[in-house]
Amino acid sequence: MPAEEPPAETEASVPRSVENLLVDYDEGGRLREEALASLKDLGTEAIGVLQGQVLPENGIHRRLRAIAILAKLEGCSEDSAETKALVMKTVRSWSFEDLPLGELLSEVQKLSGVAFHLDESVNPDLSLRIKLADASLNILLALLLQPRGMKYIIRGKEVWIY
Q1: How far, in whole angstroms, is CA 12 from its chain's centroid?
Q2: On the chain, which terminus has fewer CB atoms closer than 10 Å, C or N?
């Protein structure tokens, strides 16, 4: 009789795996390096779990640890890792009626804690309207910007619209 294959990682088990690896990470030394390698092997699933830990409702230790690990896994600064996580994981309902882009981004900044800047080529008076329920900030930005030929880039603690 053939040997049974171990069950594949399920979506529900990835957060548990990440949590277990974070315990090893906190031990430091060789365990930390092994935990980082294992987190890297988990790929985007681990990044998604860690990004969720960056949200303000989590304790400061958890947030700072997640930011430091994300920076290592993504090869960027801690500021950029934190901002990217906030853009990806900040979920809420968004509703703006005929608001100039500059004002809309100011409101989004108040609601999300993410700083926005417009490139000089972008018209801050461009009137926009959008209504989304339970959508992440990155979805909001994509729906606002892509149809108008605009994009965003994260630089440190700021999101630049160009």
Answers
A1: 19
A2: N
* pLDDT tens digits along 72-119: 999 999 999 999 999 999 999 999 999 999 999 999 999 999 999 999
Query: What is the β-pairing status of strands 152-155 and 127-136?
Result: unpaired
- Confirm if 44 and 87 have CB atoms less than 8 A apart: no
Domain match, 19 and 72 both: yes
Long-range pairs for 75-78: beta carbons < 8 A, 24 or more residues apart: 77/156
Same domain for 99 and 72, yes or no, is no
Same domain, residue pair 95 and 138: yes
81 located within any domain? no
| Tokens encoding 9 | 């990682």
**Number of structural domains the chain divides into:** 2
What is the tens place of the pLDDT at every residue in 51-73? 999 999 999 999 999 999 999 99
Which structural domain, as residue segments, surrounds residue 46? 13-76
Order of strands across the sheet that contains 152-155: 115-118, 158-161, 152-155
Per-residue confidence at 13, pLDDT binned at 50, 70, 90?
confident
Residue 91 Cα distances to 17, 51, 86, 106, 124, angstroms: 24, 12, 9, 17, 24
Whether 72 and 96 share a structural domain: no
End-to-end Cα separation, the chain, in angstroms: 61
